[in-house]
Amino acid sequence: MTIMVVDDEKSIRLSLTMALKSLSVEVLSAENGMTAIQNVRNQTIDLVILDINLPDIDGIEVLRQIKQIDRACTVIMMTHLSEVKLAVEAMKLGAYDYYTKPFSIEEMLSSLKQMDAYLKDRQRLQSNAEAEAIIGESLAMEQIKTKIEKVTRVQFFTCVLITGESGTGKERVAKQIHRKFSADRPYIAINCAAIPKHLQESELFGHEQGAFSDAKHTRTGLFELAKDGILFLDEIGDMDLDLQAKLLRVLQERVFRRIGGNVEIPFNALVVAATNKNLLQEIERARFRKDLYYRLNIIPIEIPPLRERREDIPKLVQYFVRNYNDLLGKSVVSIPEEMMHLFERYNWPGNIRELKNIIERLMILSDSETLSLEELPYELINEEAISSRNELSHLEQAEQEVVLRALSKHQWNITKAAEALGISRLTLRRKIDKYGIDSRP
C-alpha cells in the first residue's frame, strides 16, 4: 500500500510520514498540489491524505484532478474546523473522509488500519474483475477481443469508436483497450453528457490563469492529462456541436491550446469514443458532424446486445456470482437450472447492467448456497405470461407456469423440482396447494 501526504506545513508532513511508516506502508509526501498531481500521474498511489489549503492549487481542485487521473485512488481531506463545509463539498466530489485539524495521530492510525484492510479487499476484487475483463466466448465477443489485440499493437495514436446499446459494456471494452495498450499509462475518462456546456472546453483543454474571471489558477485539461495514454470520450453523441469542431481540429492536427494560452501543446493519446446513439442518424438530424464521425470511426467496435449473444449468459452469471460472493462474504455455489433457463430466454432490455443488478439483488437476499427463484423480478419470470392477463395476477400466472414446468420436467419428484427452483420442499408444497396443482395433470 502506498500513501501520499500532501501539506505545505513541513512539521505535519514529517509527523504523519513517521507515524504512517509504523503501518509498514510506503509513504510519499508533497508540499503543493502540482507535485501531488504529478506523483499520482507517475505511479500508483492507493491513498492520499490531502490538505484543503495549499499554496498553489486549492485542495478541492487537486482532489478533482486526482480522481480524473485515477478514480480508484482514495483521498482523505485535512481541514480546519472553519472549513468543514469545503470538506463536505470534497466528499461529494469523491473524497472518502476528512480529518479536522488538530487531530490525534493515534486516531488517524487506527482508522487507517481499517482503511488498509478495505483497500486490500477492493484491490483483490478489482484484480479478479480485470482477469476476465471481456466476458463471453460467443463469436461476436471473440471478434471484439481480436480487434482489441490488433488496435493495441499499433505504434501510433489512432481513434476507436465503440457503439452499442446502454448497458452492453462499452466502458469495459475501453478499459480493456487501456490494459492491453499499457496499464501504466494514463486512462482519462470524460462523460460528454454530464459536463455543462460552459465548462466543456475548459474541462478538455484546460485554461491559463486569468483567462476568464474565475480562472484563479492555471488548470490542466483532460487532453493534457491523457498524454501517451488513453482519452475515453463516453457519450460522444451528446457533445456540443461547437466543441465537436474543436475536437476534430485536435484529432487532425494533434495539437491544442489551453484557453487563454498561446503555446501549442502536442496531443499524444489514443482516443476511444463511445455512444449508444446511431451517429449516422444524428448526422442526418444535424446533431453530429459527419467529418468528426469519420475521424473517430477509424477502428469501429460494435458490441451486440445481450439478447443476441445468449450463449454468454451462463458465463456472465457465474462471473457476477463469484464477485458478489467475495464482496458480500457469501458462499453461493448453485444456480437453479430453472433460473438459468429464464435468464437465457429473457430479452434483457438493460443488457449486462440489468443482469448484474439482478444478480446483486439475488445475492444480497440469499441466505443459502443456492439462489432463490422467488426473488426474481416478475417481468423476468415469464414474459409471455405477463403479456396475457388471466384471472390470476401477472406474477401468479408466471409463477404457476414455472412451478408446473419444473414438476413436469422432474416427473413430479418434489425434492428434485424444489432443488431446480432453488426453494425448499415445504415452499414448493405451499405453491402446489396455492395453485391447486396437487395431482399430476
Automatic annotation (TrEMBL):
<feature type="domain" description="Sigma-54 factor interaction">
    <location>
        <begin position="134"/>
        <end position="364"/>
    </location>
</feature>
<keyword id="KW-0804">Transcription</keyword>
<dbReference type="InterPro" id="IPR025662">
    <property type="entry name" value="Sigma_54_int_dom_ATP-bd_1"/>
</dbReference>
<dbReference type="InterPro" id="IPR003593">
    <property type="entry name" value="AAA+_ATPase"/>
</dbReference>
<dbReference type="Pfam" id="PF00158">
    <property type="entry name" value="Sigma54_activat"/>
</dbReference>
<dbReference type="InterPro" id="IPR011006">
    <property type="entry name" value="CheY-like_superfamily"/>
</dbReference>
<keyword id="KW-0597">Phosphoprotein</keyword>
<dbReference type="InterPro" id="IPR009057">
    <property type="entry name" value="Homeodomain-like_sf"/>
</dbReference>
<keyword id="KW-0547">Nucleotide-binding</keyword>
<dbReference type="InterPro" id="IPR002078">
    <property type="entry name" value="Sigma_54_int"/>
</dbReference>
<keyword id="KW-0067">ATP-binding</keyword>
<dbReference type="Pfam" id="PF00072">
    <property type="entry name" value="Response_reg"/>
</dbReference>
<protein>
    <recommendedName>
        <fullName>Stage 0 sporulation protein A homolog</fullName>
    </recommendedName>
</protein>
<comment type="function">
    <text>May play the central regulatory role in sporulation. It may be an element of the effector pathway responsible for the activation of sporulation genes in response to nutritional stress. Spo0A may act in concert with spo0H (a sigma factor) to control the expression of some genes that are critical to the sporulation process.</text>
</comment>
<dbReference type="InterPro" id="IPR002197">
    <property type="entry name" value="HTH_Fis"/>
</dbReference>
<dbReference type="Pfam" id="PF25601">
    <property type="entry name" value="AAA_lid_14"/>
</dbReference>
<dbReference type="InterPro" id="IPR027417">
    <property type="entry name" value="P-loop_NTPase"/>
</dbReference>
<dbReference type="InterPro" id="IPR001789">
    <property type="entry name" value="Sig_transdc_resp-reg_receiver"/>
</dbReference>
<dbReference type="InterPro" id="IPR025944">
    <property type="entry name" value="Sigma_54_int_dom_CS"/>
</dbReference>
<dbReference type="InterPro" id="IPR058031">
    <property type="entry name" value="AAA_lid_NorR"/>
</dbReference>
<feature type="modified residue" description="4-aspartylphosphate">
    <location>
        <position position="51"/>
    </location>
</feature>
<keyword id="KW-0805">Transcription regulation</keyword>
<dbReference type="Pfam" id="PF02954">
    <property type="entry name" value="HTH_8"/>
</dbReference>
<feature type="domain" description="Response regulatory">
    <location>
        <begin position="2"/>
        <end position="116"/>
    </location>
</feature>
